[in-house]
Amino acid sequence: MASVRAGMATDPGRVRQVNEDRALAGPDLFAVADGMGGHAAGDVASSMAVDRLARLVRRPRLTPADVTAELAACNRDILAAAQPGTARAGMGTTVAGLVLVNVAGRQHWLVFNIGDSRVYRFVDGQLVRVTIDHSEVEELVASGAIAANEARSHPRRSVVTRVLGMNPPPEADVWLFPPTPGERFLICSDGLSSELDDPDIAAVLRAEPIAQAAADALVARAVAAGGRDNVTVVVVDHVVDTGSDLEEDTLRRPRNQVSVVVPGRPHSGEAA
Ligand code: MN
Q: Which residues does 15 contact at the CB level (< 8 Å), separation at least 6?
C-alpha cells in the first residue's frame, strides 16, 4: 500500500518575536502558510488558511477542483475578517502544499501555491523546485532584469504578488504528479529558502533519510544561517513498499487507509 511518512518543524528564528508561519502535516494533505499583516494579524491569516484546508483531509475522492474551491473560500474568509480600520486590515498569507487527489480514477499528488512559500520534489538525489514564487523578485528574474543568484539578496525579495486575502482573488498555480515510491517532497516558507540555497537544501535531504530528521535539520540550518524570518518545513516521503503495486492498490483501497506516520512534534509556531 502507499505509505507516506512526514516530518514537520518550525522556528520563529532569531529576529521575529512571533511565528506567523503555520503548517499542516498529513495524513493526505501537507501545507505551509506564511502570514503577513500588521499587529501580528499574519498568524490569524495563516491559521485561517491551514484550518480551512484541514477540512479536506481524508475527504474521499478529492479532486483538483475541490482544492482550488477551498483556496478560493480561504481567500473570501480572510478578506471578510480583514476589515478596514481594524488591526486585521490588510492581513494575508501565502500557502503552498501537496495533497492526494483523484484524477480519472487514479491518485495523483497535486502541488499548489499562492505566494512565495515553495514546494520542491527530491527524487534520485536531485532537488527540483516545482513551484514558481509569486514575488516581485521572481518576475525580475523571469524578465532577465536580475540573475537568479541575485534574487536571495535582493532588497525586495520578500514582496509577494499573490496572497490569500487579496481582491481580486489570487489564482493558485497547480501541478499534478503520479505518485512514485521513493520520492520526497519538501514544502517550506521563505524563511528556509532565503537562508539556504538549493544545493544546501539538497545536501541536507541527501544526508537525512528520515523525514522528521530532515525537517529538523533544515530548520536548524536556516536558524544557524541567520534566522531572519520564521522558518517552517514539511518533508513528505513516499516510502517504497515491496510486494504490492501502488496504483492497483490505491485504486482498490479507500484513501483514508493510506498509512501515514507523522511523528508527533509540537507546533512551536504557537509560541510567541
Ligand atoms: Mn516568511
A: 227, 228, 229
Per-residue pLDDT tens for 41-95? 999 999 999 999 999 999 999 999 999 999 999 999 999 999 888 889 889 999 9
Q: How does DSSP classify residue 171?
A: P
Q: Are 70 and 51 in contact (CB under 8 A)?
A: no
Cα of 26 vs centre of ligand 1, distance in Å, is 22
Cα–Cα distance measured from residue 21 to residue 93, given in angstroms and rounded to the nearest whole number: 9
How many angstroms separate the alpha carbon of residue 136 from the centre of ligand 1?
A: 15
User: Cα(155)–Cα(248) distance, rounded to whole angstroms?
Assistant: 50
CATH superfamily ID and name for 2-253:
PPM-type phosphatase domain (3.60.40.10)
Q: What is the pLDDT of residue 242?
A: 56
Q: Where are the domains of the chain?
A: 2-253
pTM reported for the whole predicted model: 0.87
Distance of CA 51 from the midpoint of ligand 1 (Å): 19
Q: Could you tell me if 116 and 139 are in contact, meaning their C-beta atoms sit under 8 angstroms apart? A: no
